[in-house]
Amino acid sequence: MPNLKSAKKRMRQSEKSYERNVQVRTRVKSARRAMMEALEGKDAESAEKAFRTYCSVLDSAAKKGVITKNTAVRRKTNAANGVRKLASV
After folding, report:
1. Which of 36, 55, 56 is nearest to 46 (CA)?
2. Whole-angstrom distance between the N-terminal and C-terminal Cα of the chain?
3. Rounded CA gap, 87 and 8, in Å?
4. What secondary structure letter does DSSP report for 65?
5. pLDDT of res. 88
6. Considering only CA atoms, which of 45, 67, 46, 49 is closest in space to residue 58?
7. Could you name the CATH architecture of 5-88?
8. Residue 54, pLDDT above cutoff 80
9. Count of alpha carbons within 13 Å of 73, Cβ hemisphere only?
10. What single-letter DSSP state applies at residue 68?
11. Cβ atoms of 39 and 82 closer than 8 Å
12. What is the DSSP code (8-state) at residue 41?
């Protein structure tokens, strides 16, 4: 347990940011799951829509600092490859 006033405040801030980060990470996972289901369903139109949503969620997570920019770019690239592969079939 912190003794200093600043340490107590930092602990409160840390708890709040943890809760926000969990929400963002959950949003990323849900968007990814929706996109993967669309890819497995072999529906190019819904996969494209889910891909756009996934990219948007990843960008906002990177902007908030929950994930790094390079992680967001890598995940978007992998998702785009999946959508591109589905469209070519």
Report:
1. 36
2. 58
3. 53
4. T
5. 81
6. 67
7. Up-down Bundle (1.20)
8. yes
9. 3
10. -
11. yes
12. T
pLDDT of residue 43: 85
Two tokens, residue 86: 């589905």
Lowest-confidence range among 24-28, 42-46, 60-64, 74-78? 42-46
User: What's the pLDDT score for residue 83?
Assistant: 93
CA distance 43 to 48: 9
22's tokens: 């969990």
> What is the model's pLDDT at position 34?
95
Q: With a cut of 80, say whether residue 89 has pLDDT above it.
A: no
Q: How confident is the model at residue 6 (pLDDT cuts 50, 70, 90)?
A: very high
Contact assessment for residue 43 and residue 80, using Cβ atoms and an 8 Å cutoff:
no
Query: Which helix (H) or strand (E) segment is 19 a member of?
Result: helix 5-40
On the CB side of 12, how many CA atoms lie within 13 Å of its CA?
Answer: 5
CA distance 39 to 51: 10
30 contacts 21 by C-beta, under 8 angstroms: no
